[in-house]
Amino acid sequence: MRDAIQRMKLERRIAGIFVLFFVAVFILIYRNAVIAGLFRKLASYFVAGGVL
Amino acid sequence: MISLTERIALCALYTVALSWPFYVLQTIPFVFVGFAALSVCALILCMGVDLARRHRFRVPFELIWPVGVLCLAGLLGKFAPSAGWFVWPGYALGFLAIMHWLPGRESVLRGLWASVLSIGVVAVLNLARPWLGIVPTAFLAMSDARFLGPESFAESIGLFILGCLLGLALFQNKGLSTAQRWSSFVAAVLAVAAIVVQSPGLFSNGAPISDFSAGPFGLPAFFVIALLFWLTARIGAKLAVSYFEDEPGAALALLGVLAGGMLAMLVMPSWPNLGHVFLLAAFARYGQPAVKRVEPSIPLRGVAIPILGVVAVNLFVIFPGNPWDPRNYAYDAASMLASGQVDTLAARLEAVDRMQQGEHRTHFLRAQIRLRKGDPEGAADALILSLAPGTPRLLPGPSPKETDRFLAELRDNCSALPEFSRGLAYERALLAAGQRVNALALLRLRAKNTGEAPLESRHPLAKALAAFLGAPSVAEELSQWESGELLRVLETLGSAVDRLPEELQARGVSALVLTAEKGEESLMFRGYTNADSFGGTILRACLESGLPHAESWGALRLTDGGWECRFGEQALARIWPAPEVFFTGKACAGGSMPRYQARIWLP
């Protein structure tokens, strides 16, 4: 049982490193589109909510 | 002894493994659903039956929750441009079902080997395609590259990269037989060859290899992509831990394939498909702690034969009802026209024309585009090309019913225009559709006899009108009309009438018609007298300035050599003694110029 939990923790740590790597590469390649896409949408939410 | 449910599930499992690399070629004719999609449905059903019977799910929770969220996200909204509501939930349930039914590591390697073999077959088909005369499924207007199987360049390159990586991963694995390892190696080499052969075309004309323009760059699609990254990373982590903790086996090689595949997907993105779902589920199963047991199996031959049969049919037959086959370009055209995506459709038609010259159906669709853009004359030109005799290549030309429907649309469009800008689009289209009587009757409605033209002018006027109609054969019939009627029709098309100099009449010329017609690529000058016809064409590509309207063409004048008329700076018509047209090498760009112009000299 302890082995299974240890294994799970190890998996999570490695997965965290992998996902950071994938997201970094994704943002690096599509930085302009990602930033524009995310912020335009966020800004529209704020406008719709009356914040901006 | 394995149960019937398990047997069906295994059969479906290997069907997915063998069929997904064929992409559109594995679509079952008349049903128009792929083998892979059908098999995944069967696997999901079998999983439901198994869960109801045994209450035991063979997928760990850390993989269930991201898949469950993806399923919900798919149900709540569409993330891929062409995806229906069922696609993401289908992928999510398919992942769970494939992972649930994959018995163990041995079966994973066997399934991956089956996929690599299929990728090898697709690579061979791609390499042999030019010699076999098979129409490709992935093509672009700007590019010389062509692929057979997947729908897009990105998917094609991704498929062969996966084939190469998987082939090499299996080749170095000692758990497979020698024949399996070497066949994987050969498939990997073929996959590389399939990309290398197309690489010059891929980068010609700056060809875009990505079709991710409507990508997931906003919210909430970005969360879904991040979740997909997490799922992939978690599966990668399972393989890494499995390499360190269990028997290493192929875990490290599969981790390499996963990382390579992900990087390829990031650089040349395409939306996930059932093949990717299968590979992810297979990698996830391999990353689970190994259990020593005899894994149930079925012979691959029985599964492969029907798939290869369907692929063979789809290679040479394009079914008009098949919505998945990009070669069936007419399927999406109606929705593209309805949604106003005319430029996208025009680019696609251009790609089809580039790939398969002499295709009639593209002209029919182009006619509809031009009519939507308010160009009835251009629409008629395209319809005439689509009705020209010839053998259909990819899709049949327009049926009589479709032609009639289009003619009705063209009629409504033309009749909404004022008489003097109506042109001859509808009449020319009717003539091309074989409705000669209707065309001439309609034309005669415009012809109110003014009684101003002499009898001798009938032949040159009829020839000029027949030439405008694009049907010289109707000249004889038109010459039976009153010359006043013919004159009236030509006047509605934009003609100027002048008095024929008496000196020319003394030479035996009793009527003279000079015409200029703007075509798609050229400007055509023609001349008709009661005795002779002459003419010539100048390419619009080398034209510079606009051709003046018929009223302001040069006067008919007598020079040293004979009688002549000047068409602005562009052309000179010599009427006597030797009828002909000379060009000075520059003429109109045709932008604002009317399609038909005529100048008529009568006694």
Question: What's the short version?
Answer:
The complex is a heterodimer of chains A (about 50) and B (about 600). With about 50 residues, chain A is mainly α.
Can you count the beta strands of chain A?
0
Number of helices of chain A: 2
Largest contact between chains: A-B, 26 and 24 residues
Helix/sheet category of chain A:
mainly alpha
Number of discrete helical segments of chain B:
22
Please mark out the parts of chain A with pLDDT under 50 across 5 or more consecutive residues, or reply none.
none
**Mean residue pLDDT of chain B:** 84
Structural class of chain B: alpha+beta
Strand fraction of chain B: 5-15%
Helix content of chain B: 40-55%
How much helical structure, as a percent, in the residues of chain A? over 70%
Molecular structure report:
- The complex is a heterodimer of chains A (52) and B (603).
- Chain A has 52 residues and is an all-alpha fold.
- Chain A contains two helices and no strands.
- The radius of gyration of chain A is 18 Å and the shape is elongated.
- The termini of chain A are far apart.
- In chain A, 15% of the residues are buried.
- Chain B has 603 residues and is of the alpha+beta class.
- In chain B, 54% of the residues lie in helices and 8% in strands.
- In chain B, strand 7 and strand 8 form a beta hairpin.
- The radius of gyration of chain B is 33 Å and the shape is elongated.
